[in-house]
């Protein structure tokens, strides 16, 4: 069974409060997504395999370490895009493969609209990047696509999750490690009065992560 790792890191907790705030505009929001993603990736990659290598220092030979596995960063469009850049700086040899999914607003089912994965897998470890794990439909669909591709080792990195989404992802992909900034309380129900938020949003959450990054809300 994959682990669910909820970060206890004080920097992540501090930045999460800033990220949630309605006062935070798109520029600051993108910076925070980037920074939290780097910290999450640091924790999520702590068990990556290493291979000893010879390194020549200015003084002598030394034994160093190199990552054994090719890593793939898999952002789910759109909101996952903001998680790529910072993590990529930490592991510049990673490949980035985009998956386009959006939630149908009526059914909350994920709709796939972009997938250019080549025929055979080119990476050994896939990191799915998406700030929001709500119903879990998008995460499960992305993991399905990666497994159909032939990916064997997959980790999911999300910033805020709902309990429903964690349960759904674990039930469908029990082998995937899930790394989260936090798990919130619940998802919004069907609105019963005008002005209430639409169904399927994480509470307290941060609103729509794509809109807040790209200024489209
Ligand atoms: C958001 C988010 C996830 C999905 C999570 O994307 O980035 O991909 O919703 O919801 P789920 O767990 O219920 O599937 P959205 O569909 O809003 O698309 P966007 O990133 O293009 O705004
Ligand atoms: N997608 C978001 O961007 N926010 C939510 O709360 C749920 C899904």
What does this protein structure show overall?
The chain is an alpha/beta fold and 217 residues long. The chain has a single domain, classed as Rossmann fold, CATH 3.40.50. It has helices at 10-20, 26-44, 84-90, 137-149, 163-172, 209-214, and strands at 4-6, 50-56, 61-67, 71-77, 95-96, 99-103, 110-115, 125-129, 132-133, 153-161, 177-183, 186-187, 202-203. The strands form 3 sheets. Strands 1, 4, 5, 6, 7, 8, 9, 10 and 11 form a 9-stranded mixed sheet that branches. It has a two-stranded antiparallel ribbon with strand order 2-3. Strands 12-13 form a two-stranded antiparallel ribbon. Helix 4 links the parallel strand 9 and strand 10 (153-161). The radius of gyration is 18 Å and the shape is globular. The structure holds 1-O-pyrophosphono-5-O-phosphono-alpha-D-ribofuranose (PRP) and uracil. Uracil binds next to helix 6.
Q: Main attributes?
A:
single chain, 217 residues, alpha/beta, Rossmann fold, two-stranded antiparallel ribbon, 30% helix, globular, binds 1-O-pyrophosphono-5-O-phosphono-alpha-D-ribofuranose, binds uracil
Category from helices, strands and their pairing? alpha/beta
Low-confidence stretches: none
Please name the CATH architecture: 3-Layer(aba) Sandwich
User: What Rg is obtained from the alpha carbons, in whole angstroms?
Assistant: 18 Å
How many domains would you count in the coordinates? Answer: 1
Overall pLDDT, averaged?
97
What amount of the residues lies in strands? Answer: 25-35%
List the bound ligands.
Answer: 1-O-pyrophosphono-5-O-phosphono-alpha-D-ribofuranose, uracil
Give the overall form: globular
Distance between the termini: 38 Å
* Secondary structure tally, helices: 6
Order of helices and strands: EHHEEEHEEEEEHEHEEEH
Looking at the structure, the CATH topology is Rossmann fold
Instruction: Profile the largest sheet.
Output: 9 strands, mixed
The helix fraction, in percent, is 25-40%
